[in-house]
Amino acid sequence: MTTLKIKSDSENTTADMIKAAIQAEIKRLELGLQKTERQIAKFENEYKVSSETFLARFAAEDMKGGDAEFVEWAGELKIKDKIISALKSLREIQYVTH
Questions:
Q1: CB atoms closer than 10 angstroms to residue 73
Q2: 40: containing domain
Q3: pLDDT by residue (tens digit) across 10-53?
Q4: CA of 80: how far to CAs of 19, 32, 44, 66, 98, in Å?
Q5: What is the DSSP string of 67-90?
Q6: What does the pLDDT look like over 55-83, one tens digit per residue?
Q7: Which residues of 39-49 are buried (b: 16+ CB within 10 A; e: fewer)?
Q8: In the list 6, 10, 65, 67, which could disulfide-bond 60, CB 3.0-4.6 Å?
Q9: How many other CB atoms are there within 10 angstroms of residue 2's CB atom?
Q10: In total, how many domains does the chain have?
């Protein structure tokens, strides 16, 4: 967990601005996660396998689009993990304005 201590002459205004900026970033990440999840679902539906199976068993030559498609699916999975991690960190922030 992260504690964010805010010290300012106008604490409420500054704290509100920081909270709003973090909430905006959370919303941006949530939208990105939705887009990434749609891309992953597209691959899972096309190949009729879960992403876990894809990572464990597939190689580029198993993909209709070859290397590019393999890299795209694997990349989307890495992006998803990074977004989830960033969201977790931002959502755990506690604000202290004393």
A1: 22
A2: 3-96
A3: 656 888 888 999 999 999 999 999 999 999 999 999 999 999 99
A4: 24, 9, 15, 22, 36
A5: HHHHHHHHHHHHHHHHHHHHHHHH
A6: 999 887 888 888 889 999 999 999 999 99
A7: bbeebbeebeb
A8: 67
A9: 9
A10: 1
For residue 90, give both structure tokens: 């931002």
* Coil, strand or helix at 20: helix
Contacts for 25-30: CB closer than 8 Å, 24+ residues apart:
25/90, 26/87, 26/90, 26/91, 29/83, 29/86, 29/87, 29/90, 30/87
* pTM summary value: 0.84
Residues 6+ apart with CB under 8 A from 91: 26
Lookup: tokens for 78: 């890495």
